[in-house]
Design brief:
globular; 26% strand; single chain; three-stranded antiparallel beta sheet; alpha+beta; four-stranded antiparallel beta sheet; 15 strands; 250 residues; 4 helices
Length: 250
Amino acid sequence: MNVEILGPRAREAMRRAGRAAAATLAAVGARLQPSVTTADIDRWVREDTAQRGGRPSQLGYKGFPAAVCTSRNHVVCHGIPRRDEVLAPGDIVNVDVTTELDGYHGDTSATFFIGEPSAEARHVVDVARRCRDAGVAVVRDGARLGDIGAAIEEVARAEGCSVVREVGGHGIGRRMHLPPHVAHTGVRGAGMRLRAGMAITIEPMVNLGSHRIRTLTDGWTIVTEDGSLSAQFEHTVLVTGDGCEILTLS
């Protein structure tokens, strides 16, 4: 597997792209409220990304028709923004922003509450955030990919949740999706070793019910098979000798 090791200039370019993506996500997240449509989110992402000198990486990727993924309630990932999808009190929605800036990509997402969440919604969102953080915490030079998945799955299982297996994180740099695939389940000590200079995303999708998923007829939108809530948080991280640098902190 050919995995790129980023040099000093590329690392600085990744920092700029990551900061831009994180800033767009924060700006859009602050505007979310009941009556907003997911098409509004798409428009805001396009506008904010352009103001920061970037381009939405997702727009047109393998035919994807929008600048952002908006995944609401039981949608796991890759939700397509629509004018007729209106956020309502009690919803949760994941907003997944990827920005290309000066030829490099920063990828980040967060799940937001719309109004007052239910106890179940609050739980799955909290667990998803903690799962991401647990995965990030084990990243360092010499760690293995299986260490990331194991750390994530341990947190989810302890909280009565499940982790989606078919979709995971990925390498990132001069392309949005690069090797390696970063599974969010795994066995400690297994899988490829991480090396300083690699950039990857960690983005576990955590379900309140079963881990099983299905894809809708649009070919993109992935939902929980049992209709349970799903939440996700994502960071782009740069592997370093003694840990990692989170490139998408807001």
